[in-house]
Design goal:
By secondary structure, the protein is of the alpha+beta class. It has one domain (about 20-145): Superoxide dismutase, copper/zinc binding domain (Immunoglobulin-like). It contains two helices and ten strands, in the order αβββββββαβββ.
């Protein structure tokens, strides 16, 4: 009885965070330098929720300097580091539009989501064809646990958001 109760509670605890996990990505231009700033611009937002074992993604983008051509989920070796394409997202629109998708993630993709290494990338026509140090992309944003947002131009006091990710033990 005791062993069964413990196993049930352990299983419930393991499933609860996954079913209620909400993630968010702020899409912004990357990489950006004097050479690319005329071709890489815009903003966007993406939310992701794990629902019934599927990652459901919804978002929007605006202000691209040329027509959107693709949207993807990628796995990076670390937050902020270019990674490898893993899933294609559906997108609609040209310089302003929406992105979406629903996927059952494999073990590696689930681990990447939990550790902040899964990110969204939107490509556009005029974005440079790639860099020696990273992929082509107009807007990028890492899916991190949803958290309070600071208002633009308003200084924040006290502790502020630092991702506390479900990182594997070292």
């Amino acid at each position: 009885m005791r062993r069964t109760l413990f196993a049930t509670l352990l299983a419930a605890a393991a499933l609860s965070p996954a079913s209620a996990a909400d993630y968010r990505a702020d899409l912004a231009p990357m990489p950006l330098d004097d050479e690319t700033k005329a071709y890489i611009a815009g903003r966007g937002e993406v939310t992701a929720t794990v629902e019934e074992g599927q990652l459901v993604i919804k978002g929007n983008f605006r202000g691209l300097p040329s027509r959107a051509t693709a949207a993807h989920l990628l796995i990076a070796p670390a937050i902020g580091v270019p990674g490898t394409r893993t899933l294609d997202l559906t997108f609609a629109g040209q310089t302003d539009g929406t992105i979406s998708g629903a996927y059952r993630l494999n073990h590696a993709q689930s681990a990447a989501l939990r550790t902040g290494r899964l990110y969204v990338e939107i490509d556009s026509e005029k974005a440079p064809p790639g860099y020696s140090w990273g992929p082509k992309g107009t807007l990028w944003g890492w899916l991190l646990p949803d958290h309070p947002r600071a208002e633009p131009g308003i200084p924040q006091r006290g502790p502020w958001f630092i991702p506390q990710l479900n990182t594997p033990a070292r």
